[in-house]
Specification:
The chain is an alpha+beta fold. It has helices at about 5-10, 15-25, 30-35, 75-95, 180-200, 200-210, 215-240, 245-265, 275-295, 300-335, 340-360; strands at about 40-45, 50-55, 95-100, 105-115, 120-125, 135-140, 150-155, 160-165, 170-175.
């Protein structure tokens, strides 16, 4: 019996290792695997006062030297305190909160260290009159990363809620606090969902791995439906805080899911039906999708709308990717270069999966 292309390649370990190494060296860093540069704000409006809490990952501030003076990979409170005082000034210089009038005073209320790299800054804005409108303007991307996104959750004393997203392409948002708008909230989170999947390169790598070994439209429908159903379940469970798993554990499993699907493609065999494997790993990816919404701590009044819109946005982005990639892969895998293309692409995706796993699981 004639050997398959994959078996021939496995008999040439030097070539396989060389291909794997090349794929790793050209892989994007983990910072690009997700929309990793993001920050969050919770604004509580009560009369003429606005209490603000910002959550940042200090590693995002690339223009600042992190104060790890003893080089132990851990930022202690003593190391962070002077750094955060300077950071607070820089944030205020690149972040504006205005009502119908400018604030008369902005007072720092200290900070909290949430983890070894995540901090929360607290402040109180005082306005001359009752706050009925808010304008939030951010240029935080000047301090962090060019693709930085800032997610805002606003609450008033009556429990009404508003959500918004600002970034380099939308540097400011205006909120009318007299009229909570469910439609605007839905629109913002739909866009956020699309952006999350489009910039989530690990999720796209997983989808690409699935599409490589999906030869027919019927098989494609099964795989996409299975992935959608699975991640929708865990996205809802995690967002409602019914089930919560550590972020590092989830992100590491996502990386392993990418590598596993690529290994199946390369070997040319599966241990279970592909839709079943997709459903299992789709549950894991749903926890990854939930991280954005959980950080915002959405109110119960807007949670259902935000969750549905975000998930719908993820699906739109996913379907757009499938519609773009599947015809190309179908043409390639229908050609005489099918085995070579499948093996090469599987090796590259496998390398990405293992690379991201090492970075996520073993990073300090």
């Amino acid at each position: 019996m004639q050997e398959s292309f994959n078996m021939k390649l496995l008999r040439r370990p030097f070539i396989a290792a060389l291909a794997l190494t090349a794929a790793i060296l050209t892989a994007p860093t983990p910072a690009c695997a997700h929309e990793s540069s993001a920050s969050y704000a919770k604004l509580s409006v009560d009369g003429a006062g606005v209490r603000a809490q910002w959550t940042f990952n200090v590693a995002d501030f690339h223009q600042k030297a992190l104060p790890d003076h003893n080089q132990d990979g851990w930022l202690s409170e003593e190391e962070l305190q002077p750094f955060l005082q300077e950071l607070f000034k820089d944030v205020l210089a690149n972040y504006r909160i205005e009502g119908p009038d400018a604030p008369t005073a902005v007072q720092s209320e200290g900070y909290e260290i949430a983890s070894e790299s995540v901090v929360r800054l607290n402040a109180v804005y005082t306005f001359p009159f009752q706050v009925t409108r808010l304008r939030i303007a951010s240029s935080l991307e000047k301090l962090t990363q060019p693709n930085h996104r800032h997610l805002v959750a606003v609450r008033d004393a009556q429990g009404n809620a508003w959500e918004a997203v600002v970034d380099g392409s939308r540097p400011a948002v205006d909120l009318d606090l007299t009229r909570p708008s469910m439609l605007k909230t839905a629109g913002r989170f739909l866009v956020l969902g699309v952006e999350h999947i489009v910039t989530g390169y690990d999720h796209l790598a997983f989808l690409a791995g699935l599409l490589l070994a999906t030869p027919t439209l019927k098989a494609l429908v099964k795989v996409v439906t299975s992935f959608t159903a699975a991640h929708s379940i865990t996205l809802a469970l995690a967002t409602f805080n019914i089930v919560a798993l550590p972020s590092r554990f989830i992100e590491s499993l996502i990386a392993l899911s990418i590598a596993y699907v690529a290994i199946e493609n390369f070997a040319g065999r599966t241990l279970a039906p592909r839709w079943g494997v997709t459903f299992l790993f789709g549950l894991v990816h749903g926890f990854g999708f939930s991280n954005v919404l959980r950080e915002m701590e959405l109110s119960r009044s807007s949670l259902a709308t935000s969750l549905f819109s975000f998930n719908f946005g993820v699906e739109l982005g996913q379907l757009a990717f499938v519609a773009l990639v599947f015809p190309v892969l179908y043409l390639v895998t229908s050609s005489r270069w099918k085995e070579q293309a499948l093996s090469t692409a599987s090796l590259a995706i496998m390398a990405l999966g293992f690379y991201w796993f090492v970075e996520r699981a073993l990073a300090p």
